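REVIEWER CHECKLIST
Item 1: Sequence provided? yes
Item 2: Single chain? yes
Item 3: Sequence as submitted:
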Amino acid sequence: MKPFKLTTMITLAMFISVASAKLFTIQFDLQRNKENHPIWDLTNTSNGHALMLEPGKTLTHNFCLRTDSYVTVKDFRFSNGNRSEQVMLEIDRVLMGAFRTPTNPQHSWNLFLSTGRFPRVPLISIGWHRLVVKFNGTADGIALDYIELDIDDDKMSQDIFSCELTCIPDRNYNVRSNPVVTEASYIVQESYKTACPEVDNINVPIFNPSVQMYEITAALPQYRAFYNWKNENTTGCPHLSPLYWSFNNIDLTSSANYAIDTPSAKIYFSRGNDRHSKVHTSMVIAFKLEGKSKGMIDSEMGAILKIKFRHLTNDVKLSFRYKGRHNGLSRTVINHATPTHPETEWNIPDFSWTDKDYNLVFLYVVSNSSKPLHMEHLFLERRPMLPDQVKSVYRSDDSIIEVVFSDFWWLNPDSMTVHLSTGDIYHNVSYFRIYRPIPWDQGYAQVFVLYQDGNARLLPVPPVGLKGWIPFGSSVIIGQTDPTVVRPYASITDTYIDVDKQVMSLMYKDGGSCRLSLLSSLTETRVVVSDLYLARNPALFPFTTFRSMYVAEGNTDVDHVKVDGIHNLHIMDDFNAVIGRNFVFHRKCMSRHLNLSPDIYIDIRRTLNDNAHVELIDTDAFQSLLMRIRNHRFRLWTPRLRYNYG
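Item 4: Structure as written out by the authors:
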């Protein structure tokens, strides 16, 4: 039914166009409303139910906003008895509008009307709000179907609107002054969209040609939440599947050459008879795998090829070879399938595939029977990853240190050697982790992890009363990275740990080095990075990189970055290059993903007190770098520019 014209508007306002609004519907037959108002079954409602607002009563509905937003009532759908009623709609006691319902001669509660858009569009602040419906009639009441709201916030989500996840206003973060910082740093937006919560799609390199010392601090989010969601979420992550490709239910009957093409692989068949009149089928499978160039391990890890036949009546001989990263074909491996054991498999070693070109698998199938073979499945999958091997290498009243050896490390053959001040040395370490005692119980909490690729993760100790551990979320790469690669890294060769002082010295594959000091308090964990030696041009290779995850509001490990305690930018904004001295990567909105994982503060504490280093910056090279990173969309940063907030 077409919207009827609002006959009486108490509040008239100029219509405000909402260009980037998102539509949200308030259905009134919710459980809380059912406890306070009658619910009628009416077929012409949107879901078969309507709430009856009786004379003398009001209806209140709570909703939340992610940020200050213009809110428009797009539609109000209702029905009424035979009498005309005056209806008013308020948000936080601010009148959105009022109208008089028409007389209903049919007295049909199933005759629903729509008001259409209300003209008033107020700016409503972030947080929790009350929508109230009331009328001053005395006879019949009104039946409510729904209200539609347009909210001028394209990042708004249903979980936030329904207040299941809440957002907080901008907060002041404890950012200290930097008396010895003479040159500001700049961050570059290099993030991309993803549907997978287990992918670090947030990538923000930080540059400063004269940096001498900086701090990384991890503190609990400033929103108040007592959930501790810490399970992984692989929704939207098809690339995490170990299956590379598969072909199923194929009859090897045709004597002609033919092929089957899928998005992941293509298989070619040819069939004939050999000189002994045995039936043979040749299969060639061509496929590509992703490797280090895209931050993946598929082309690096070994694999398992499996084949299974159905209704075998005779033995089948299968010859297998492959062509990957090495010159020439692999040696031939012969397996057999029999009527009692119709399935067989081959193991392909690590570092066999390539990510530069097509990989090829060759199968030659010979059968003693002239009857056609039915191949139930043929597939290739990544070999299973064995559990990490953990070794406790130091324990005292004040700390625990563990080194961890992974079954397969993505930067192989790069590896890290850990040297302890006790004299112990451990080779081929994938990462190590440090625990500190929890003051209010007898346990220890993991507060710092450093991976061989330079990724550092920090955690504050769990607050009093929290059961279990807090999950890591965002990470920071300590060391220079190439900002143009998909998965940046800073390959560490050696780490020297002073177990008493909690001080670490890092040596990098590129020749760089730095020193880390670990400090834990009741509210935060902080790493001071000092004595930096940057082996590569610091204007082109960032000294550190922030890494995290953002899928949508309420499914994030970070959603904003606050610069110098003043400018708050959404983490997915196209903010180009932004200049500042400290950066707080935080969440304004609660998240269902690792919701207690910490906010990360990166504070540049010292730079060279000498402007001579500015001459080292090759502005042409830096312009080329920005063009590579952002497809010519970055503004050029020059040493003369100090603050540019986009």
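Item 5: Key structural point noted by reviewer: Helices lie at 31-36, 158-161, 619-630.
Item 6: Recommendation: ____
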